[in-house]
């Protein structure tokens, strides 16, 4: 039966596409997806570059070297210890495109 086999194949393809689309959307929400890993590396590199005295923290003076970060320093310093950790920095840092 020609028409029936075409219909079955169409249904199968639709289901396959739906599951592919679902997998793709699930992947973009996963924390370990490649894009975010890449931007973390960029943020860490920028952090290390700005961390003039290499103590693993960004003081207000060091952060001022990056205007986008320095302008929001107090807001970014979530734990109010007066310095930015790499995590606090990474939350605000967006790599230049
Ligand atoms: Ca420092
Ligand atoms: Ca802090």
Shape: rod-shaped
Rg, Cα atoms, Å: 23 Å
Helical content class: 55-70%
CATH level-3 fold name of the largest domain: Recoverin, domain 1
Strand proportion, as a percent range, falls in: under 5%
Q: What quaternary form is this? A: single chain
Mean of residue pLDDT?
Answer: 83
Unique bound compounds: calcium ion
Architecture of the largest domain, CATH level 2? Orthogonal Bundle
- When the domains are counted, the total is 2
Span between termini: 55 Å
The CATH class of the largest domain: Mainly Alpha
CATH superfamily of the largest domain: EF-hand
Q: In terms of per-residue confidence, which ranges show pLDDT below 50 for 5 or more consecutive residues?
A: none
Number of strands: 0
The main sheet comes to:
none
Structural class: mainly alpha
Count every helix, treating DSSP H or I runs of 4 or more residues as helices: 6
Helix and strand run: HHHHHH
């Amino acid at each position: 039966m020609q028409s029936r086999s075409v219909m079955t194949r169409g249904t199968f393809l639709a289901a396959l596409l739906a599951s592919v689309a679902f997998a793709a959307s699930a992947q973009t929400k996963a924390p370990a997806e490649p894009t975010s890993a890449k931007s973390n590396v960029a943020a860490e590199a920028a952090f290390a570059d700005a961390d003039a005295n290499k103590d693993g923290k960004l003081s207000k003076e060091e952060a001022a070297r990056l205007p986008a970060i320095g302008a929001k320093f107090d807001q970014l310093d979530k734990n109010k210890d007066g310095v930015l950790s790499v995590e606090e920095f990474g939350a605000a840092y967006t790599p230049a495109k």
